[in-house]
Design goal:
By secondary structure, the chain is of the alpha/beta class. The chain has a domain of 349 residues: ABC transporter type 1, transmembrane domain (ABC transporter transmembrane region fold), CATH 1.20.1560.10. 63% of the residues lie in helices and 10% in strands. The chain has a six-stranded mixed β-sheet with strand order 6-7-8-3-9-10, with helices on both faces. α20 links the parallel β7 and β8. The longest helix is centred in the middle third of the chain and has 55 residues. It is a multi-pass membrane protein. InterPro entries: AAA+_ATPase, ABC1_TM_dom, ABC1_TM_sf, ABC_transporter-like_ATP-bd, ABC_transporter-like_CS, P-loop_NTPase, Type_1_exporter. This is ABC transporter ATP-binding protein. Keywords: ATP-binding, Membrane, Nucleotide-binding, Transmembrane, Transmembrane helix. GO terms for molecular function: ATP binding.
């Protein structure tokens, strides 16, 4: 239930709709109860003996203890006044009264549902938005330990589960309890003895029903977890389809997917069969209670004489009427148990602490003036440090290249300066300010990033480039494409910069995608550029074109170049050679060659290749 209350917090912005829903339900429950009580005078008219002469006078109210008799006599008096001893006219009046009450009941029922639509859908929208926002905010380290498919399942399937299981309970919170309260009041007025008798059996029914629902949360949790596995397998299959086909691994992945699908089938069957058991069980128990009421109520009418026939029939209608909301509440409790597992999975993401959240007094960095300084930084992803006491100063306007074997810590530098991760020891300073004291947004405005994998989105070329500069004009976009050596192929496309490049840019070659990612960084026009092995995945011709684009982009900018191909960084102002997270050599290309150390060996190895 705690997770249900957490979900209810998202209903606060919709208090006005909740208020309208509650008011409508008050009248819905009131007219629903009165519509059954209004049957009493009609039944009296139908079953009264015609030869019975009764002088009907206007009744006097003598207190709540005689409320039932006062109500009956009051209705009988006014019906008699209107009908003037004409039973057909009286019957027509009572039928009209019943129709009016049911009409009012349904009008207010519609209004209650009308207000609930905005409340319920608003909560779903805000919840989905909150999960997505938190997903985007969380650091990359969180996703390295999670399956993407499982996160997708939480944002989609789990939110949908809440929408159709837990959130409909919001409709029951006001309506069904009010319906029960008003119905009970009507039942007590008609017969206190019979109402007490009902209360003996309802708790017994409730205990039986609750026992059925105890394992629903656990079974639902298994179903939702398996949905995450299915989505993860599907996502991995679509991402790696080329490799799967190339290694003839279709059968292996097909078996993996089928195993997960079969588990989902098995868990879903158990969950749904347990749910299906709830409705017939509660209905049978309801009929059982009604049957016992018929027997006991019949005794009160035929033997005891303390209850008249018309009141007893109306009481039975009310008793059945109370079973409908009671069943709805029991079904709602089942749904809460089922939705609780989904709510727990969603809340797990929302409640995940973000270690990279800005400090309360973080400053806005609007420009870059002097230098970047890495000051004795050490960092580890898990157990072993990948950077150890790393220190480096990069003056404004200079290009520094980081080289070394794979795993030497080059890309980690890019991850740390962009605050994708926090350093474990030491600090990174920009213009003398620790980047942890700068707002993440303003820090990243100073940075342009070009990665080894050209990450593009299923949109037009223009919209992909404007990712970091929404206000850029078409002329500025074209100018950025020219700097990135990409305008030559873009202008030949059917729609130019308005051409859609497909999912992940799959309509373009690797070199074309990389030049677009460079153009995107150029259009953003930041003072600091970070190039993370931007040419390592390209063929020789594409590398030449991209290298020209990179050189154009780095003019008059401070650049950190993480290089795999050493031929691309020979003109850097300084080359830093890393080995196992430590600086082993540092200097210009020619100086490092003359040292005949680690850098020269790296150059020779690539020359041999």
């Amino acid at each position: 239930m705690n997770h249900f209350y957490n979900i209810l917090r998202y209903a606060k912005p919709y208090k006005s709709y909740a208020f309208g829903h509650i008011i409508s339900n008050v009248f819905y429950a009131l007219f629903g109860t009165l519509s059954f009580i209004a049957l009493i005078p009609m039944l009296d008219i139908l079953f009264e003996k015609k030869d019975e002469v009764t002088q009907i006078t206007k009744p006097d109210y003598t207190g709540i203890a005689d409320l039932k008799d006062y109500y009956k006599d009051f209705l009988a008096y006014h019906v008699n006044q209107y009908a003037e001893n004409d039973p057909q006219k009286a019957l027509l009046l009572v039928v009209g009264l019943i129709i009016s009450l049911f009409l009012l009941k349904n009008i207010f029922g519609y209004l209650a549902n009308y207000f609930m639509v905005f409340l319920r859908n608003g909560v779903v929208r805000d919840l989905r938005n909150a999960v997505y926002t938190k997903t985007v905010e969380l650091p990359l380290s969180y996703f390295s330990e999670q399956k993407k498919g499982d996160i997708m399942a939480r944002v989609t399937n789990d939110v949908a589960t809440l929408q159709y299981s837990m959130l409909p309970v919001l409709e029951l919170i006001a309506r069904e309890p009010l319906m029960i309260i008003f119905t009970l009041i009507g039942m007590v007025i008609l017969s206190a003895k019979l109402t007490i008798f009902v209360f003996i059996f309802i708790p017994i029914s409730g205990i039986i029903i609750s026992r059925i629902g105890k394992s629903l949360k656990r079974k639902s949790d298994r179903v939702q977890n398996e949905q995450g596995v299915i989505l993860s397998t599907l996502e991995e299959t679509l991402t790696g389809l080329r490799i799967i086909k190339g290694f003839n691994a279709e059968q292996k992945f097909d078996d993996k997917f089928r195993e997960s699908s079969n588990r989902f089938y098995y868990f879903s069957n158990k969950l749904l069969n347990r749910q299906n058991l709830a409705s017939p069980t509660s209905e049978f128990l309801g009929i059982l209670v009604i049957s016992i009421l018929l027997w006991y109520g019949g005794q009160l009418v035929l033997v005891d004489g303390s209850l008249d026939g018309s009141s007893f029939i109306a009481f039975m209608g009310l008793a059945y009427n109370i079973m409908v909301p009671a069943k709805a509440i029991s079904r709602g409790l089942y749904n809460i148990k089922q939705g609780n597992a989904a709510a727990e999975r969603i809340q797990e993401i929302i409640d995940t602490p973000n270690p990279l959240r800005d400090k309360p007094n973080a400053v806005e960095k609007t420009d870059f003036n002097s230098e970047i300084e890495f000051k004795n930084i050490s960092f580890k992803y898990q157990d072993d440090y990948v950077l150890k006491n790393f220190s480096l100063t990069i003056p404004k306007g200079k290009t520094v290249a980081l080289v070394g074997q794979s795993g030497s810590g080059k890309s980690t530098i890019a991850n740390l300066i962009t605050r994708f991760y926090h350093v474990n020891k030491g600090e990174i300073l920009i213009d003398g300010i620790n980047i942890n004291d700068i707002t993440t947004s303003s820090l990243r405005k100073q940075l342009g990033i070009v990665t080894q994998d050209a990450i593009l989105f299923n949109d037009t070329i223009k919209n992909n480039l404007k990712l970091g500069n929404e206000n850029a004009t078409d002329e500025a976009v074209i100018e950025a494409l020219k700097v990135a050596n990409a305008w030559e192929f873009v202008k030949e496309l059917p729609d130019g910069i308005d051409t859609n490049i497909g999912d992940a840019g799959n309509k373009l070659s690797g070199g074309q995608k990389q030049r677009l990612s460079i153009a995107r960084a150029v259009l953003k026009s930041p003072p600091i550029m970070i190039l993370d092995e931007a040419t390592s995945a390209l063929d020789t011709e594409s590398e030449r074109l991209v290298q020209v684009a990179l050189e154009n982009m780095m003019k008059n900018r401070t650049s950190i170049v993480i290089a795999h191909r050493l031929s691309t960084i020979q003109n850097a102002d300084e080359i830093v050679v890393l080995n196992k997270g430590e600086i082993v050599e540092q200097g210009k290309h020619n100086t490092l060659i003359e040292k005949k150390g680690v850098y020269q060996k790296l150059v020779e190895m690539q020359s041999f290749e």
